[in-house]
Amino acid sequence: MITLIATDMDGTLLNEHQEISEANKQAILDAQQQGIEVVVATGRSYEEARYVIEEAGITCEIVCANGAEVRNKQGEIIYQAGIESAKAKEIAAVLNETGIYFEIYTDRGTYTENYEMGVELIVDIFTTANPNVSEEQVRQTARERFEKGHIKLVDDYGVLFEGDSELVYKFLVFSFEENQLAEANEKLRELSGIAISSSGKENIEVNSIEAQKGVALEKLLKDKGLSPENSMAMGDNLNDLSMMKVVGRPVAMGNALDQIKEFCPFITATNKEDGVAKAIQEAIKLPAK
To answer: Exactly one of 8, 236, 240, 274 is catalytic; which is it?
Structure first.
């Protein structure tokens, strides 16, 4: 019997309009009514994730920034795993050396030094998850992300590393140039104490080694006294793999990367076809072990 369900957001819980469909919403509410815990695990910041989840009328725990932060149902922080200031400076130096664009997620917000590149990054993440949606529609959604205050523009990232005013959660790195992205990836992998993943074909995500969706999910399961074997996780991209390795029922979306599908014994429909709802409905019917 499944006692906890974890779901990614972009390319998984969200459809091509960046919304939680009525079918997905109802399946989550049905699961919660049966006493099953539901957790949303995303690379997004809390503010970016919260407004979409609340809009759908769903209340649940949220694993944010790939596991760097966990919020309870009341929105309170119950777990943080940031990157130490010295290590953050080291990561920033490596990225600046390659001349690649990046954003920084902290416990106070998400920051960019370049508005237009910030829009392009979100366009990439959205189109990776929804390749058939028009660029105009995706670009408008990306601009709304800035307009709603989810991304803050700064002149210099250096101010974020001064003192202990902000805890760095994640670096989101982006480039259309394959060679530049590969160079950044190679140099980052020479650093210790970090976890490197991806949520789009042209990006890299850098967190503390303790900030992974799988690590955060393990902590939640332990706190709740629930068995990983009786848990399910759904996703479509590489930053979902760590939580899929934790649970007894890993489910790949129909639109997931081949690497994710190869790992998961269960594959559901795409995010455009309410794959999350279908996977939840199937899981709810499983007999108790």
So the answer is: 8
Which one, of 29, 36, 10, lies nearest residue 224 by Cα? 36
- Ranges for all domains in the chain classified under CATH 3.30.1240.10: 85-208
Sequence ranges of the chain with CATH classification 3.40.50.1000: 4-81+212-284
pLDDT tens sequence across 213-269: 999 999 999 999 999 999 999 999 999 999 999 999 999 999 999 999 999 999 999
Place of tokens 């058939």: 132
Residue bearing tokens 């009525």: 22
Q: Which two tokens stand for residue 39?
A: 């957790």
User: Which DSSP category does 17 fall into?
Assistant: T
**Is-catalytic flag, 30?**
no
| Segment 17-44 mean pLDDT | 96
pTM, full prediction: 0.88
* CA 261 to chain CA mean position, Å: 18
Q: Could you please state the CATH topology (level 3) that the domain comprising 85-208 is classified under.
A: 3.30.1240
Calpha distance 138→66 (Å, rounded): 22
CATH fold, domain 4-81+212-284, is Rossmann fold (3.40.50)
Helix residue ranges per DSSP H, the chain: 22-33, 46-55, 85-98, 115-129, 135-147, 178-188, 213-224, 241-244, 258-263, 275-284
61 bridge partner residues: 39
